[in-house]
Amino acid sequence: MGVFAHEYPNEAGIVRAALASSFVALLLGGVMGLIQALHRTGYVQVIDDSTYYTVLTLHGVSLAILFSIFFLVGFFQWAVTDSLDRPSEDIRFTKLWYALMVLGSIMAAVPILGGFIDQTEISADVLFTFYAPLEAHPLFYAGLAVFIIGTWLAGIDWFRSWWAWKQKNRGEKTPLRTFMVLTTMLMWYLASAGVAIAVIFFLLPWQLGLVGGVNPLLTRTLFWFFGHPVVYFWLMPVYMMWYVILPKLAGGRLFSDPLARIVFVLFLVLSVPTGIHHQYVDPGISEGFKFLAMTNTMFLLLPSLLTAFTVVASIEHGARQRGGSGYFRWLTDLPWNRPAFTGMALAALMFAAAGFSGMVNAGMNFNYLVHNTLWIVGHFHLTVGTAVALSFMASTYWFLPKITGHKVFSKRLGLVQVVVWFIGMVFMSNAMHRIGLAGEPRRTADPFYDGVTFETSLGTISELHAQIALGSVLLVVSLLLFAAHILLSWFNFADKDAPTPDTIPPALSGPEHAPAVLENFRLWTAIAIGLILLTYTLPIAAIVSGNGWFGPVTTFIGDTSSFLTGLFHAVFGVIP
Amino acid sequence: MSSGTEHEASPDTLDEPDDVWEVDIEKQIGHDEYDPVGTLSLITVYFLIIAFLWVFMYFVEFLGRGPTVV
């Protein structure tokens, strides 16, 4: 038994490469965030208003797609290899999916960066939510497709490892971490199908001139088919960290292994048929379908609340093993001096707050209060911007030694970094929520309009703008500290000894208590597909029957599709 | 297998000097002895906070305003 980097050098190399790609995207995206925050609050404006949307796209795509997904594939590769205790079945295949993800990233980045250069027509100022009618250069869509195919192959790679393990370990429960990876990837296959169809069949042919147009509502719906569950693609690895790493760092044991498995199965089943809750104000979708999406979304609170219980109970177990007592006093017996623990615990605290703002977003009536305002931006800076980003950064302090073979540079520096991030986000996100309630819109370079004033119930709008600016500066300071710290640790500037291997302690209630049906991935996937069909078939049929697959059609392919659509209607039109 | 909740930890694998499992554990608490009352307390507080916020958001922020232009 040794350090992962020495036991599995090839796999550790892929994990390091994925993390390095992730951190480059994090730094780039974070700096873009600072430019935006200072621009729209009016403090420092180094770009034109028109360039703001290029910056916003770079911010969104870098952080929401590249940083998060590169990190999680690296983390998942470690989780699978380490928990199954077997190398990749074919390391060339592992290198292939990583290479495809890098290629896709570069292809998507080139047109986005083209937006900064006036001399070229190439651009992709379409934001992270890249549905029509916004148009990007075809290379952007092609890059995204290649990137997503890379993630699909990564999933196949992990399923291959699991299958090979299963042949040798018949009758045994899948190790928890691999179980979590596999359920996450099954969810991701279902979720990413929406955006893959949108890109390959609609947006890319449209930008290549193969079809005359698209049906914007259809591409929006397909985007949100992916756009909501993608947040669970970011969150499920974080849940794995909270379930597996956090209790160990607290000095405790996971409260219940079967409960953790149930949570991941629930995410597989419930994540996808929820996307229409992003479209409550879209006029082309009936209220009934929106109500169904709201119901599904509220059901998703269940696995998150189960997680709140299990993770807190596991941490409390650690505190009590370390001598903690009382109803609240045990909180002081947690290892708050360790950056990995503190960062993840603060991230979880922020996620609890995000749970509330998420319930507001998901309510059909409440949503009208906050739709398209800065409230939404405040919400997802608590979820992906803190629960995910801060957990990823904090866990790196525990995780990095396993893949580099030497310890991190300084715990104290790590602690300062995670706390600064937390404070920065408290300022920025709180102010964003309150500004949103005052009605200030999101996705705009200049939120100030003649004759329009935004009234807040407490304080003034300019005070809140100052809080956003201050928060964003603190966040970038934290980010620079993180980047410097990772560089110092990665190249072992402190010349620290190699870490000794450590072990994740067994759960209080182990996998032997988990019912066998939880291992039936086919069953859960089939139920998930059934729910998706129930939720999406009728709305998509209604959207297409209203405006066609491609909107106004003027080309051969478009006319052909129009003909086929007509045929579809003729056949199914006889059914009342 | 180098780690995983599915396997019992052996003492010789917990030798990282800064590992709380090695230096800070006062007593091992098993499944049947553990009663997570602190978790219940925290979750009760959380529930009260979100219940209050929900009431505030609905009656003050939502009903207290006129029609919204989104």
Automatic annotation (TrEMBL), chain A:
Alphabetized InterPro entries for the sequence: Cyt_c_oxase-like_su1_dom, Cyt_c_oxase-like_su1_sf, Cyt_C_Oxase_1, Cyt_c_Oxase_su1_BS
Domain (Cytochrome oxidase subunit I profile) ranges: 19-518
Cellular component aspect of the GO annotation: membrane
Cell compartment(s), UniProt: Membrane
Transmembrane segments: 12-35, 55-76, 96-117, 137-159, 179-203, 223-246, 258-278, 298-319, 340-360, 380-400, 412-432, 468-491, 523-544, 556-575
Record membrane topology: Multi-pass membrane protein
Broad class of the protein's primary localization: membrane
Family annotation (Pfam families): COX1
Protein name (record): Cbb3-type cytochrome c oxidase subunit I
UniProtKB/TrEMBL annotation, chain B:
Keywords of this entry: Membrane, Transmembrane, Transmembrane helix
Transmembrane segments: 40-60
Name of the protein: Uncharacterized protein
